Amino acid sequence: GESVGLHLPTLSVQEGDNSIINCAYSNSASDYFIWYKQESGKGPQFIIDIRSNMDKRQGQRVTVLLNKTVKHLSLQIAATQPGDSAVYFCAEADSNYQLIWGAGTKLIIKP
Amino acid sequence: DGGITQSPKYLFRKEGQNVTLSCEQNLNHDAMYWYRQDPGQGLRLIYYSQIVNDFQKGDIAEGYSVSREKKESFPLTVTSAQKNPTAFYLCASMWGSGNQPQHFGDGTRLSIL
Question: Would you list the DSSP string of B38-97?
């Protein structure tokens, strides 16, 4: 999940397993959500987005699930690879279309 | 190759000095953004611009200034009024308005000498 502070939540996953990264969002009126991947020393890279009129969207090896009832978002990565190691951020768009970012989750892949 | 270029990659600021971070995009995007990222935290919005010659303050604009004289350029000045400028600065751009993915540069890391 997301938290604020110097210590990022960390998820360790065995290579080849599926990863699930969770995110709780704050505003029930938000209608756009997005996931980014950030590698060390680089800018965030867009992974997948979803609008509030959907509850699931799939990309290549990734799936985003949206549960508006409990204001929860998750990112599933299938068959996790070493290149998936990074910090993953979820963000929600406010009424002015500005993104509100979570603190991130660090994904570590165990060989 | 289309993209967003931030320069320099590393920048050092002396006390009382203003420094300017460059952001250029050749994606023909209308909107551009500046974010600040501190260790272990998410991104916080400093300024954004949806059209040339217009920009708005974000959540943490104090001590920063921007200009948007050209569509492809959105420089950020960190002024001496910003007392804690050490951070990773990220520039982004987005096509159109409304809810679309923002595309990011690879950042400038600013430190105090």
Answer: -TTS-EEEEEEEEETTEEEE-TT-TTEEE--SBTTB--EEE-TT-S---EEEEEEEESSS
Do B90 and A7 count as a contact with CB atoms less than 8 A apart?
no
Tokens of B87: 């951070």
| pLDDT classification of A7: cutoffs 50, 70, 90 | low
Tracing tokens 């990011």 back to the chain, one arrives at B104
Contacts of B97 by beta carbon, 8 Å cutoff, 6+ apart: A97, B30, B31, B50
Given an 8 Å threshold on Cβ–Cβ distance, is A101 in contact with B58? no
Q: What is chain A's mean pLDDT, rounded? A: 91
Residues 12-41, chain A: which have Cβ within 8 Å of B? 31-32, 34, 36, 41
Cβ–Cβ contact A102 with B under 8 A: yes
Which chain B residues have any C-beta within 8 angstroms of a chain A C-beta? 4, 6, 39-45, 48, 58, 90, 92, 97-99, 101-107, 109
pLDDT exceeds cutoff 70 at A12? yes
What are the structure tokens assigned to A69, written together? 């009832």
pLDDT, one tens digit per residue, over A37-49 is 999 999 999 999 9
pLDDT in tens, A78-92: 999 999 999 999 999
Interface probe with A: pick from B6, B44, B93, B102, most Cβ of A within 10 Å: B102
Amino acid at A54: M
